[in-house]
Amino acid sequence: MKFYPLQFEPILKERIWGGEKLKTVLHKPITSKITGESWELSTVEGDVSVVANGEWKGKSLTTLINECPNEILGTVVHARFGKQFPLLFKYLDARDDLSIQVHPNDELAKKRHNSFGKTEMWYIIQADDDAKIIVGFKEKSNVNNYLENLKNKTLLSILDDVKVKSGDVFFLEAGTIHAIGAGLVVAEIQQTSDITYRLYDFDRVDANGKNRELHVDLALEAINYNTVETKKEYTKNENVSNEVVDCPYFTTNFLPLNGEITVSKSGKTFTVYMCLEGGFEIDLDNSKSQYKKGDTVLIPAAMNTFILNGKASILEIYIS
């Protein structure tokens, strides 16, 4: 069987806070004015990615993994996770502020939901002037202090808000209170989990005039009440993989491509490329595939040697 770079149909999600930048900035085929998310690579139940190109067009990612686990996932990933795809890749457009939320860690998520936890990272693709995110507490807090401020609607006063710009990266371990602010387009890499505990939603209502559900009690045990350092500094040397995040769940590098480089892989892990700016091609045995800003491509672990060529800013993600 000949393995090749895989692209998938985007899974588009309407959100109360969504907009139209996934189309205008990242070329996604949205038709709604409140599209908040494009799930690029997913095996979340009910939202499984389907191949959009080549011989396996129309096949689901889970089917491919079941048929060829070592070749798709890699020997190390398969040994560690079985036939599960352990990561979820998204682009988000926040026209409005997202809710303030937190995700459980592996232990709590396993106990409550039989799921992975959710550690994640954000790469800021585009930021309006004065756009901000919320990440953690300004000072060390505790359950009582948190609940008192939540009750008094002063939660924002004890949370740390950070002004952001294009190219900024934030790493959020499970348990970190966070929210993406209005005016941001973000690439998100996370563990395969759709578990979110919503803490505060600015008293917004949906189209039916109802408040969205909050999960205050569930969140209490999940929250990390310490202060956290989430921003990641990284180098941007051309034509090499500059490490941005290296954690137990994924490694993410920033690759400023300018010209041609040969890539060699060991077969231990899949690799994912997310194109943030510009465009590039992958040359596999003289068969060339083109990619543009907003594209996400899965390189099966069995693809050992290929050529990247172009001028682009790329995120390179794999599991160590």
Can you characterise this structure?
The mean pLDDT is 96. The protein contains seven helices and 19 strands. It starts with 10 loop residues before the first strand and ends with a strand. 14% of the residues lie in helices and 39% in strands. A hairpin with a 2-residue loop joins strand 16 and strand 17. It is globular and about 65 Å long. It has two domains: 11-220, Sandwich (Jelly Rolls); 242-318, Jelly Rolls. It has helices spanning 21-24, 61-67, 69-73, 75-81, 106-113, 143-151, 216-220; strands at residues 11-19, 35-41, 43-44, 47-48, 87-94, 100-102, 120-127, 132-137, 159-163, 169-172, 178-180, 184-191, 197-200, 242-246, 251-264, 271-284, 287-292, 296-299, 305-318. The strands form five sheets. It has a six-stranded antiparallel beta sheet, with no helix packed on it. By secondary structure, it is mainly beta.
Question: What is the topological layout?
Answer:
Layout: E1 11-19, H1 21-24, E2 35-41, E3 43-44, E4 47-48, H2 61-67, H3 69-73, H4 75-81, E5 87-94, E6 100-102, H5 106-113, E7 120-127, E8 132-137, H6 143-151, E9 159-163, E10 169-172, E11 178-180, E12 184-191, E13 197-200, H7 216-220, E14 242-246, E15 251-264, E16 271-284, E17 287-292, E18 296-299, E19 305-318
Antiparallel strand pairs: 1-2, 2-5, 3-4, 5-12, 6-13, 7-10, 7-12, 8-9, 8-11, 14-15, 15-19, 16-17, 16-18, 16-19
